[in-house]
Write a structure and sequence with these properties.
The structure is a single chain. The chain has 108 residues and is an alpha+beta fold. It has a single domain (2-104), classed as 2-Layer Sandwich (Alpha-Beta Plaits). Helices cover 31% and strands 38% of the residues. A hairpin with a 2-residue loop joins strand 2 (33-46) and strand 3 (49-63). Helix 1 runs antiparallel to helix 2 (67-77). The chain is elongated.
Length: 108
Amino acid sequence: MKSEFIQVITTIDSEEGARKIAQALVEKRLAGCVQIIGPIRSIYWWKKKIETAQEWLCLIKTRSHLFEKIEKTIRKIHPYETPEILATPITQASQDYLNWLDSELKKE
């Protein structure tokens, strides 16, 4: 059961944007929980220059088969040309948490 769950992360340039993403994903039951952390400082290469930005980080708990719908939802809201949308498998977790997460997500 653990391997079907993932954590998706994305960063965005405003707390309001992070809240919009979180709200949309939870309302659609694409995420059981989205935690917003920020502001954070990001330093990265963009168009051959080093950039620095203040951003908010969204930690999205979901199932792996929902990734494409999550990506599509984030892209509709996100202002970036190339938003960070990364998923990592949840390899270990408390069974109680996974049971709760399972009960809150779409069952497609």
